[in-house]
Every structure is written in structure tokens, then in C-alpha cells.
Write a structure and sequence with these properties.
The complex is a heterodimer of chains A (257) and B (324).
Chain A: H1 2-20, H2 22-46, H3 52-85, H4 89-93, H5 99-129, H6 137-165, H7 169-184, H8 199-211, H9 220-251
Helix pairs in contact in A: 1-2, 1-5, 2-3, 2-5, 3-5, 3-6, 3-7, 3-8, 6-8, 6-9
Chain B: E1 3-15, E2 22-34, E3 38-42, H1 49-57, E4 64-69, E5 72-73, H2 78-82, E6 85-88, H3 101-111, H4 116-129, H5 145-158, E7 163-167, H6 175-192, E8 195-199, H7 203-209, E9 212-217, E10 220-226, H8 227-235, E11 238-244, H9 249-258, E12 263-265, E13 270-276, H10 282-292, E14 297-302, H11 307-315
Parallel strand pairs in B: 3-8, 3-9, 6-7, 7-8
Antiparallel strand pairs in B: 1-2, 1-4, 4-5, 9-10, 11-13, 11-14, 12-13
Helix pairs in contact in B: 3-4, 3-5, 4-5, 9-10
The chains are: A mainly alpha (257), B alpha/beta (324).
Chain lengths: 257, 324
């Protein structure tokens, strides 16, 4: 019940702030859409006409997934930076629930809210291009869940680094490009990337949405890789986060921004 | 009396980033706080007050020693110990500026695992008590500093913990709001039966609210005693004697030999002697010197010492007053 109350409080806070910072939210949506339009028209104008449709489909899936990845992985880092600047990080650290639980519920809350935005953007992109992808919820949902868990792990690592170093904005900017690389590069080019946090997930999502692969057609080894990635990266992320929290408490870094 | 906080041989050092110099913030400090007590934590800037507060809150890990809250070791069972503590730390009052007054209260209660429904009545009660009811839908960034401070204290109250730590609760407040916050704290002690530790530079707050004070200087405790005792200790020894006329050179020399810190202010009509006596009997020695030349005494005033003066005397290194 305490977990539920914690989640409830955090999703409510995130929703209220999303509403109160509406211009910022709208600016984010417009930026996404205009960059996408640029990509789309680029494919139309300079792309090979014979593979135009398939390129557009790849662009939609990769771009939307990249957007989701940035929001999920970077969000917790920004949250820590903002809490540090607002002098509320110490107050959160004093919760008997533990800061990692607060951050986990924050992650769940922001992911849920961002997911709604991402779904809206996905349909907007499909509507704009006229390319309707295969939205097989039953197949996509378990893939996404496992992929998101591994993303949470990376989010925790970034949050931990943010607690100790605080000023990591430049790193977060660079991270966007690393995430873009991991999202856009197909697994056939670099198979070892399957063991990176979310690459296998995005590859499977592409297979489902573009090639129409169904749940039963996904190999057991794919599920195994997804599950192992989810567990390993989440546990590793949490471990690093808790270590960084303790390190910050030893050095007195929680309050300093 | 049963103690609720036990601080034992705590040491905390920091390493400076560039010079790698080791700074000792608190050095082997020990004290206890009794249940229902209101303790003042005093010291000049950089003395180690905030470090001590944060160590008790579990926001810092000590190099050595231990802290127990309600018998729970803050290092071994940190989260368990945190159930018994809430705090208002210095800074931007630890609030979310884009949430309303009520939303802040609900959010922080949620972070301690409580539902909105569960705390609704309690929030109403606190809003009334803290005179924030009319502002409950106001964004925090539109509130005055005093109201933000009251809200921060209300958030700490809502945690329902036995111990509340307040770091500089009246800092930056105008006289009126400072007085209001002081009254509020008095009310909390009286009606809510909480144990409070206040770190403050505001001596009026300490003198009016606290039963006992721990004075820290250079990371070490220099005094741990009841406020009344400290006032009494300095009060009985401070005298101002008004004379009708002057002291002779000989008298002045004799007095300065006996009382090196004596202050003599000669005046054409009335001269003044200010003296701090180590023992009250020393007043007879002073009168013996006056009697030598039959210097007429107009009046003798026992100086009323306020707590600020007591604090200054202790911090200036008069370690002989330490009664740890």
C-alpha cells in the first residue's frame, strides 16, 4: 500500500508540473514534430524512391523510440539535478521509504506520462506520412516492459552520477547522440549490441511494427536476451545508484549543487 | 528523563577538493536529547551546527561514533530511524515552488507512504493552525518567505515524527513573522509533544524556546547546559557601579590589579565601573578599594545579561564555563 501511495503522489506531482509547465511541454512536442517533418521530407526529396516507404517506416519507429529512450533514461538525471537546485533532494533523502523507491516511482510516473505523449506522436507521425505501422499491443507490450526495465537501470546509473557530480548537463546532451546511435543502428550491423540495454528491444519492436512479426514468432533466445538485459541492467543501475547515494552522504554532496 | 536522541563520539571530516586539505567539521561530540525537550544548537558560522543536524538526519555518514534515534542506530537502520525524524533544513525551504500549499503537503506525505485521504484531516488542521488555510491553493513561489517557512514546518509536522530538526527557522524573516514562527514553535512544543532541535543564530529564539542549549565552536562542544543556568551563571557576576566623582590613580591601579577586565568610564559628574566578578564575594574587595578614599557610591546595578552576551562570552573561548 505504501508503494501505491508513493506512486500515486509522484504521478500526481509529475502530472501537475507537466500542466504547470505547459509551454515547455508544448515546445518539446513541436520540436519533436518539426524535426520529424525534416526527416520525412529528406527521405522524400533525396532518398531512393524504391525504398521510400520502408525508410519512412524505419524513421518513424527509430525516431519515436529514440524520443522515448531519451525521456526515460535522461529524465531521472534531470530530476536529480532539479531537486538539487531546488534544495529538495535532501528532503527526499529523508523519507523513510528511501530515495531509490521515490526515484523508481518517479520513473514509473514519468514513463507512463511520457508514453502517452509518445503514442500520440507515433500516431501523428503515421498520419503525417500515411504509413500505418503494425500496432500489435499484445506483442509490443511485453517487449516494451522488459526494454523499459533495462532503461530504468541506465536511468539509475545516470541519477547516481548526477547525485555525486551534479553538473552533468553536458554529459546528458552527449548521451542523446549515443542513444541515437544505439537506436538507429540495426542489430545486423553489430550483433553484439543485443547485449546493450535496449538495443534488442528496439530491434524487436521494429520487427513487430514494420515486418509484422507476432508474439509466437519471436525466438526464445530473444526473450532470454531481453529478460537478462532487464534484470542485469536494473540491478546494476540500482546498485550504482545506492553506492553513489552513500558516497554522497559520506562526502556531504547531497545538498551541494 | 528518557532520551530520544543519543549522539556519541561523532567525528566528521571533509576533504577540500583542490587542496585535499582535511577539514574537521565536528570532532568527537557527544550529547543526548530527552523526549519532549526543545534543544538549542548554537555556534558561530562554520562551527559544525548544520553538519550535526545533518548527521542526526542521516544525510551525512560520520567518520566515527554513532547516533541513535529512539534507540535505532542511524547508520545500521537508517530508513527505520528516519521514521522518527523530520526536518526543515536551510535553503529554499525544501518546497516545490510550482505546487500549491496543499499539494506540497500531500506530496511530502505521499513520499512517506501516506495516502491523500489518510492525511486530509490532518492537513486541514495544520493549515488552520499555521494560518495558511486561505493560501492552500496558492503556488508556493507566490508566498512570502515567512509563509514558505510556516509551510515547511507544517510539512515537517505532517511527517508525524517524534523529533523535528529545524535549521535556522527564523533566518531572513521580518520581526513580525519571526515572532509568529516563534509562537508557532512554542505551540508545537506545548500541544504536540514533540522533541525539537533548533539550530539558530537568533538568540531570542533560543532564549525563549529552548530549555537547554549545546554550543559548538570549531567542531567541539563548549557548553551543554540549561539556558537558565547559563544566564544565571553570567548574571550574578556582572555589575555596573555608578560613582559620585572620580577614582584616584592609586585606586585605579589597585582595581586593575585585582580585576584586570574592569572597565572604568570617568565623567565630570558621575563615573562608572563595569566589572565581571569571578566570585560574588569579590564585591567586598572592590568596596575596600573605594573605601580607601571614601569614594561615594551612587548606585549598584546587577547587569541583566541576555543570552546573546552569554553566547559571545562562551564562544570567545571561555572554556572554563563548559559543563559538558
Amino acid at each position: 500500500m505504501q508503494w501505491f501511495n508513493l506512486f500515486n503522489a509522484n504521478i500526481r506531482k509529475e502530472y501537475i508540473e507537466l500542466k504547470r509547465y505547459l509551454p515547455n511541454t508544448l515546445a518539446m512536442l513541436f520540436t519533436f514534430y518539426f524535426v520529424f517533418l525534416g526527416m520525412f521530407f529528406g527521405i522524400q526529396v533525396i532518398g531512393d524512391p524504391s525504398v521510400q516507404d520502408i525508410n519512412t517506416q524505419y524513421a518513424i519507429v527509430n525516431y519515436v523510440f529514440w524520443f522515448l529512450t531519451i525521456m526515460v533514461i535522461q529524465d531521472i538525471g534531470w530530476q536529480v539535478i532539479n531537486e538539487g537546485m531546488r534544495d529538495t533532494l535532501e528532503q527526499l533523502s529523508m523519507s523513510p521509504m528511501g530515495i531509490w523507491k521515490i526515484m523508481t516511482t518517479r520513473l514509473l510516473a514519468t514513463t507512463l506520462l511520457n508514453f502517452i505523449i509518445v503514442v500520440f506522436l507515433l500516431f501523428l507521425s503515421m498520419l503525417t506520412t500515411g504509413q500505418w505501422l503494425n500496432i500489435d499491443v499484445g506483442t509490443l507490450l511485453p517487449i516494451l516492459l522488459l526494454t523499459l526495465i533495462s532503461m530504468f537501470g541506465i536511468g539509475f546509473i545516470i541519477a547516481g552520477i548526477s547525485i555525486v557530480l551534479k553538473q552533468v548537463q553536458a554529459f546528458l546532451q552527449i548521451l542523446q547522440f549515443i542513444l541515437a546511435g544505439l537506436t538507429f543502428v540495426p542489430l545486423t550491423v553489430a550483433p553484439f549490441l543485443a547485449f546493450f540495454p535496449f538495443v534488442k528491444g528496439v530491434d524487436l519492436v521494429r520487427s513487430v511494427m514494420i515486418d509484422g512479426v507476432t508474439l509466437s514468432q519471436i525466438q526464445a533466445t530473444d526473450w532470454a536476451i531481453l529478460s537478462v538485459n532487464a534484470v542485469v541492467y536494473f540491478v546494476l543501475g540500482l546498485f550504482i545508484f545506492l553506492y553513489c547515494e552513500r558516497f554522497a552522504m559520506k562526502r556531504g554532496l547531497l545538498a551541494h549543487y | 528523563m528518557e532520551s530520544i536522541i543519543e549522539v556519541r563520539n561523532i567525528k566528521k571530516t571533509y576533504k577540500k577538493r583542490k587542496s585535499k586539505e582535511i577539514i574537521t567539521a565536528v570532532n568527537d561530540i557527544s550529547f543526548t536529547v530527552n523526549k519532549g525537550e526543545i534543544l538549542g544548537l548554537l555556534g558561530p558560522n562554520g562551527a559544525g551546527k548544520t553538519t550535526t543536524i545533518k548527521l542526526i538526519c542521516g544525510l551525512l555518514i560520520p567518520d566515527s561514533g554513532f547516533i541513535k534515534v529512539n534507540g535505532i542506530d542511524t547508520q545500521e537502520k537508517r530508513l527505520h530511524a528516519l521514521r522518527h525524524i523530520s526536518a526543515v533544513l536551510e535553503g529554499n525551504r525544501n518546497l516545490y515552488w510550482r505546487l500549491t500549499v496543499r499539494e506540497n503537503l500531500e506530496y511530502f506525505a505521499g513520499n512517506r507512504g501516506k495516502s491523500r485521504k489518510e492525511v486530509a484531516l490532518e492537513i486541514d488542521d495544520l493549515l488552520e493552525k499555521f494560518r495558511l488555510k486561505e493560501k492552500e491553493k496558492e503556488l508556493v513561489n507566490r508566498l512570502s518567505r515567512g509563509m514558505q517557512q510556516k509551510l515547511a514546518i507544517a510539512v515537517a509536522m505532517l511527517a508525524d515524527s517524534e523529533v523535528i530538526l529545524l535549521d535556522e527557522p527564523t533566518l531572513g524573516l521580518d520581526v513580525e513573522t519571526g515572532y509568529e514562527v516563534r509562537e508557532m514553535l512554542q505551540d508545537i512544543v506545548k500541544n504536540y509533544n514533540r522533541t525539537i532541535i533548533i539550530s539558530s543564530h537568533d538568540m531570542d529564539v533560543i532564549q525563549n524556546l529552548c530549555e537547554r542549549t549545546v554550543i559548538i565552536n570549531h567542531g567541539e562542544i563548549v557548553t551543554n547546559d540549561k539556558v537558565d543556568n547559563l544566564l544565571r551563571l553570567f548574571d550574578v557576576r556582572a555589575y555596573t557601579i555608578t560613582l559620585d566623582g572620580f577614582l584616584s590613580e592609586h585606586q585605579q591601579q589597585l582595581l586593575l590589579q585585582k580585576f584586570p577586565q574592569l572597565e572604568y568610564i570617568p565623567d565630570t559628574i558621575q563615573s562608572t565601573l563595569k566589572v565581571d566578578l569571578t566570585k560574588s564575594e569579590e564585591i567586598y574587595d572592590l568596596f575596600d578599594v573605594l573605601k580607601l578614599e571614601h569614594t561615594p557610591v551612587e548606585s549598584i546595578d546587577k547587569k541583566t545579561v541576555n543570552f546573546e552576551e552569554v553566547f559571545m562570552k562562551i564562544v570567545k573561548g571561555e572554556k572554563q564555563y563548559a559543563m559538558v
